[in-house]
Amino acid sequence: MLVPDLKRSAGSAADGSGTGRTAPLHSPHDRLQEATGLAQAIDLDVRDSILVPVANPRPATLFGSGKVESLKAMIAADEIGLVIIDHPVSAIQQRNLERAWNTKVLDRTGLILEIFGRRARTREGRLQVELAHLSYQKSRLVRTWTHLERQRGGYGFLGGPGEAQIELDRRMIDERIMAIRKELEVVVRTRELHRQGRRRVPYPVVAIVGYTNAGKSTLFNRITGASVFAKHQLFATLDPTMREVRLKSGRRIILSDTVGFISDLPTMLVAAFRATLEEVIEADLILHVRDISHAESDSQARDVEAVLTDLGIDTVPAGAPILEVWNKVDLLSEATRQQAESAARWAEQPPVLVSAATGEGVETLLGEIDARLGKGDSILELVIPPDQGRLINWLYEEAEVLDREALESGDVRAKVRVAAEKKQRLLAQAQRAGVTATPAQ
Fold first, then answer.
1. Count of domains observed in the chain
2. CA separation for the pair 3, 71 (Å, rounded)
3. Which of 37, 38, 157, 425 is most buried (CB neighbours < 10 A)?
4. Is beta strand 151-152 parallel, antiparallel or unpaired with respect to 163-164?
């Protein structure tokens, strides 16, 4: 595992890979740890992880000639079969390094694609990964493998000069990409029908987003009682999962668990998963889950915000409200926890501190979700005759009963909070029972 440490300034865009990548926000040590975790996520045997200073990225090999030679000796001595470079590597750089080191070379994008290929479980997920993989592969069909230069014989009885293997491969990839896009169009239409169904109910959608391994799936399981795969592993969850949750007020919401984000997430993956991530775009509330115990929590948060910006979250009319959830407080020392609590109190948009693993703070989080979604709620008062138990039961099921008092007449005076989308249903239920609902004093 090689992690290039580019010594250019943050404003420099030239790195020799043709990607226009700027200097990373994360520390070299964190990038080294994350890159190793990515490789281990698909059970690769990481023999060594090396931080390689790169003063001047070379267009042909990324690394300088002396470093290429010294790495060649190390690779040969350890009989390494695969070298992963945690950085964008152009097709020419990949070809030259593979020739120099006599081994397979994979860059960060290729590694993330491999992980996504292993993790996808649903048909939609597999199609999206294949689409991203083919787009990546197509960009590599330029002087990458010498066997692509050979000619194939002409087709048909007229003969002809034939078709270069590279042209044939590109055409086959294009045909497969078109076929996948047609299949995904059907999936997108089905997903849109499901969304339209939810709008008719309607239940607010709360989407969980965050850096990979921030604890999103653990929090999702804690809230919903589901058993979504959750593991201390990068990209443990790939396919989105949705569950209905009933809050204390009686409000029902759809909670959506999404794929984790990461620094330098390949653009083609963001594009491929856009249909899935539309659940985030259309969410009524976004929970940005952060691993507050991680040394690079702030940098990770900026990476997530960058992806949300790419998805157009900040261009949505009025903006999708975002609630930060600082997770893993159980891993903080007492002093660090006090600092986090102080920072949360003084924040312009106060976050909620939780531990998805222990359940600490989750009830507070649910209350905050309820409050955020309940800004349009109404508080009503009803005097209900004793023979209208059905209405009382409905209030407990669909609203939040704030106060209940038995009167001398045998009637029940109830003070309830009802969601805006259920107010008309409550008024209809009350009218059928011969009860008047009035705004509470």
1. 4
2. 13
3. 38
4. antiparallel
What are the b/e assignments for 350-369, b being 16+ CB within 10 Å? ebbbbbbbeeebbeebbebb
Residue 222 CA, distance from chain mean position = 18
In whole angstroms, what is the distance from residue 54 CA to residue 67 CA?
A: 9
Q: Indicate if 226 and 258 belong to the same structural domain.
A: yes
Asked if 251 and 373 touch (Cβ cutoff 8 Å), the reply is: yes
Most trustworthy range by pLDDT among 15-24, 29-38, 70-79: 70-79
Q: How far apart are the first and last CA of the chain?
A: 67
Task: Scan for tokens 């990964």, then name that residue.
Answer: 129
DSSP β-ladder status, 378-384 and 352-353 = unpaired
> Quick check: helix, strand or coil at residue 326?
strand
Domain-terminating residue out of 96, 115, 134: 115
- Distance (Å, whole) CA 331 – CA 293: 6
Q: Strand pairing of 252-257 and 352-353?
A: unpaired
- At 144, give phi and psi (nearest 5°): -90, -45
In a domain, 187, yes or no: no
- The CATH number given to whatever domain includes residue 84 is 3.40.50.11060
Task: Give CA–CA dist 377/371, Å, rounded.
Answer: 9
Taking only the tens place, the pLDDT of each residue in 374-387 is: 888 889 999 999 99
Q: What is the pTM of this model?
A: 0.74
Domain holding 163, by residue range, is 120-181
Nearest to 89 by CA among 133, 55, 136, 46: 136
Cβ 302 vs Cβ 221: under 8 Å: no
Alpha helices in 378-422 (DSSP H): 389-398
Q: Which of 91, 115, 139 is the last residue of a domain?
A: 115
Segment 388-394 long-range contacts (CB within 8 Å, at least 24 positions apart): 388/433, 388/434, 388/435, 390/433, 391/429, 391/430, 391/433, 391/435, 394/426, 394/429
- pLDDT level of residue 186 (50, 70, 90 thresholds): confident
**Contact 134/106 with Cβ under 8 angstroms?**
no
Cite the DSSP H helix spans in 160-319: 165-200, 216-224, 267-272, 274-281, 297-310
pLDDT at position 10 is: 40
Sign of CA dihedral 307, 310, 311, 312: positive
> What CATH number corresponds to the domain at position 327?
3.40.50.300
In a domain, 194, yes or no: no
Tokens of 103: 């081994």
